[in-house]
Amino acid sequence: MGRQFEYDESGSTSYFFVLSFLTLYLVPTTITKIYGLFCGSKDQEDTTAQDGPAVVRKKHVAKNSGQGWCRASNVIFVCAWVLFLVLAYAVSDDEVEKQYNPFEILELSADATDREIKKRYRELSLKFHPDRNQDDPEAADHFVRIAKAYEALTDEVTRKNWEQYGNPDGPQERSFGIALPAWLVSEDNKHAVLLLYVLGLLIIVPTVVVMIWRRSQQFVKNKILHKTIAYFFRFMENRKIIEVMAVADEFRERRITLRSTDLETVREVCKNANLGSDPFSKGKKRWRFNNVAHAVATRVLFHAHMERMPVTSEMQADQVVVLELVPMLTQALVEACFVNYRFWLSTAKECMYTCQLLMQARPEAALREPFAMVEEQLNRKAITTLARNKPQPITNLRELFAHSEDELRAMLQPTLGDEAMEDLLIIGSRLPFVTVELTLEDAMGQTYQLDQGDTVYAGEAMQLKFKLVRHDAQSFPESDEGYRLRGLVKPTHEAESEDAEPEAESAEAVVDDEDEDEDEDDVWGAIEKPDKEEGSKELKSRPALCPHYPHAKDEQWWVFVGTEKDKAKHEDHLDSLPLKVMMKDDFEGKFAFGVPRLKGGHVWYPSFYLVSDSYIGLDLEIPMKFKIATSRPVVEEVAEAPAASMSADESKAPVTNDSDSQASDSEDDEEEEGDIPMTLEGILAAARNQQRDDADDILQDDMDW
Asked: What's the pLDDT band for 619 if we cut at 50, 70, 90?
């Protein structure tokens, strides 16, 4: 029995090959697009319908969805479906070769007897005999098939061949089809096919791989361009965040620019925002980066959004694009503040406040308004009423919505009226009021009180555990300060002070039995991999109340520790990398920061900050107080006592920390070349030096201001 390989002459098998690959692409893509079309639009409706004046957002979302159907991915998707349907129709028309079956030819069932076979053969042979159908050639062919089928069922040898090989003539030559068209391996086309292989495998595929790799190398974490990080690192200045953010290279890639038809609108925006009449003017009043087209255009669009000014349709489309990048770029700015050698706390806070202004479409003056989130509902008379409230004036949103609904109605309804009062209560039900619980530990699990001036040691790593709980106006604890410091001798009720244990009242360090074996690596892991602890939880959040922001936005918060300049003798300092968290009802996490290397006896006043990226006036600052010691005291161990016979009290004695004492004694010594920095300052200094080197290289090679 021979074997023969045949290529597809008709193209039917090659159609199946192409259809298989199209199916691999079309099935997941179709499911994704159907889900986005129905479920995605439903989510957008849910997040916009409850935002009150959400006309601006709905308009932008509708415009974006209309433009999305013209994207290249959608065109490819439609073309793939058209090709799939055409090939499927072509395959359906192909005749399928049936397996030889003599019973089917004689129109009998498989269990027919010999008598039935002979009877049926006589009937069909008389009907299709060539002498009776001389004008019908198909009848003659069918008569031959009938005779052959009868022989296959009555002759023992023939029937055995049919049952064993599927053919009454015995074994046949077996052929294997290859799903490639015959012209592809034709001798006449071999040079053209070889050229296609060379172009595809040696030129096109490597080129695509190199392009994708080079594109990926342009980005750092969170899809931020290397150039953007370099610009932020070099040009970061306090209170000029809009200017620095506008120079991001992402806007250049998206071709954000001004057109001649936009000049009149640009002048109006500059006038209302007190930016000057002409962004391209020269002299002392000239704009920063006025020779960078996308930076000028983006800055104008930002200020137009913050002033809630109407712009041209082209500018409006660009405005939607630039606003979408604000949360991502703000996080990059905040991280640049931490990596910067100056540790700018005030600049990092300005970045966060700028994000709040852009989310709420408010000018910078809104940061000085304690009721900025409800400014449209509260009039001047109502604000005066709150300021004169007895027994304690109401000066911010937390104090306002800490009162019950009945108390608010009694205070404000005569001044506001029914409609404004209802709007105020609705907004209060949507705003998040977060309470915080803090616990501070060192690398050995020793806990500290946060506002009693406990002694901490210069250069050591500390771990701050925090628990955030989200409340609305109805569930916000009445007269709550917004935070609780675990271990404080400051109970909220007298009953708690009576039941408090002496260990909780003592200012001595307390070591919990469960944390005795906690390794110092956990603290360093929190410093080097802050996202791992955060990512281990299922992140859920709630839609933010941002009616003028043209994209869906979730509530998110920055948590970090910093020291302001006016609270200490050293400079403004960002002590920890700001972590961005999201929560639906509550969130628990931890992060590490280092104690500054100050002289012994110095009092250190850091603060824990909780800053929203969406709301103005809902941030929280928790003051802390510590006394800094130069080094941890050394406790000598008794050498004569065997390790196996140590008592329980001796095993719980404080562990000697020689590395910390040696580090403090040799603070001015230089590290040997090639040593790994094992202190917090060494790790952070190495990161900052590397970031500065990368920024200098990028700016030197690529920038021309």
From this structure: very high
Q: Looking at the structure, tell me whether residues 245 and 350 fall in a common domain.
A: yes
Residue 645 burial (C-beta neighbours within 10 Å; 0-12, 13-18, 19+):
exposed
DSSP string over 375-412 = TTT--HHHHHHHHT-SSS---SHHHHHTS-HHHHHHHH
- Single out the residue of 618, 614, 472 nearest to residue 547, CA to CA: 614
Backbone angles phi, psi at 446, to 5 degrees: -75, 130
Q: What is the pLDDT of residue 437?
A: 92
Q: Are residues 355 and 439 in the same domain?
A: no
Instruction: Supply angle C-alpha 606, 609, 664, rounded to 5.
Output: 30
Pairing of strands 626-629, 454-457: parallel
The answer to the question of residue 697 being in a domain is no
Q: What is the mean pLDDT of the chain?
A: 74
* Residue 676 to residue 417: CA distance in whole angstroms: 67
Which of 315, 343, 368 represents a domain boundary (last residue)? 368
**Gap between the Cα atoms of 289 and 296, Å rounded:** 7
Question: Same structural domain for residues 340 and 285?
Answer: yes
Domain count, the chain: 6
DSSP classification of residue 239: T
pLDDT for the residue numbered 308 = 92
Which among 607, 591, 593 has a CA at the least distance from the CA of 680? 593
Q: Per the structure block, which two tokens stand in for 164?
A: 């064993």
pTM over 0.85: no
Q: Are 558 and 611 in contact (CB under 8 A)?
A: yes
Phi/psi-derived region of residue 701, left when phi > 0, alpha when psi is between -120 and 50, beta in every other case: alpha
Phi-psi region of 115 (alpha: psi -120 to 50; beta: other; left: phi over 0): alpha
Kindly state the tokens that stand for 415. 């001044």
| Nearest one of 691, 480, 468, 443 to 588, comparing CA atoms | 468
Q: Check whether 414 has a pLDDT greater than 70.
A: yes
Assign 449 to helix, strand or coil. Answer: coil
Q: Domain range spanning residue 569? A: 433-629
Q: Is residue 646 in some structural domain?
A: no
Residue labelled with tokens 């040997």: 672
Last residue of a domain, one of 343, 368, 393: 368
Residue 390 within a domain: yes
Nearest by Cα to 618 from 426, 485, 430, 412: 430
CB 415 within 8 A of CB 379: yes
Same domain, 37 and 114: no
Is the Cβ–Cβ distance between 682 and 461 less than 8 Å? no
Exposed (0-12), middle (13-18) or buried (19+): which is 615, by Cβ within 10 Å?
A: buried
Extract the tokens encoding 628.
Answer: 């800094």
Which pLDDT tens digit goes with each residue over 45-77?
444 434 433 444 444 444 444 445 667 788 888
d(CA 597, CA 458): 5
DSSP label of 97? P
The angle at the Cα of 574, spanning 584 to 685, to the nearest 5 degrees, equals 120
pLDDT one-digit tens code per residue, 198-216? 998 899 999 989 988 887 7
Q: Note whether 539 and 571 are same-domain residues.
A: yes
* Residue 653, in any domain of the structure: no
Retrieve residue 247's tokens: 């120079």
Q: In angstroms, what CA-CA distances link 583 with 39, 537, 540, 549, 588?
A: 22, 10, 5, 20, 9
Residues 6+ apart with CB under 8 A from 286: 280
pLDDT over 90 at 555, yes or no: yes
